[in-house]
Sequence to fold (152 residues):
Amino acid sequence: MPLARRASVPHAAMLLILAAGALLYAFLGYHSALREYDDAAAAPVADYVVASKHQEKMGSGRTQRTASLLELRLDGPPTAAPQTVQLAVTGRVYRRSATGDRWPARIVNGQPLFNPLLIGIASENRLLLVGFGLILGLGGGLVLRSALRNRG
Fold:
């Protein structure tokens, strides 16, 4: 295997640093989204109701993906909150949502802030980054082992 013959400690260190960076970024990004929502605990709350749902194709070529969107409208008397909101959610949350479902939002600076745990995107991104970090860490460990074995 060519990788085993060329394995070196610097290559292993690079892979392990990338793995640590991916894991750190996953941790910080996810917890900052949760912290932002928790910091708005004193903000006024508005209830939104799912008016409709649809999926849109975004991007082009290889970067094309399908975004799952919920159209939410304000339920109750008019407030400073926007009357309608388009919310991007994961496919799992999209399939589980139905017209008429309630979504509470905290109103921060005139914009609704939804619970990142309910939306699912932050946890889905975190899962991908953790998987990427673990694969890089495993690869870095194998390269390091191979480099140390070839060394001595």
Q: What stands out?
A: The CA atoms of residues 1 and 134 lie 22 Å apart. The radius of gyration is 22 Å. Strands lie at 45-58, 65-75, 84-89, 102-108, 111-114.
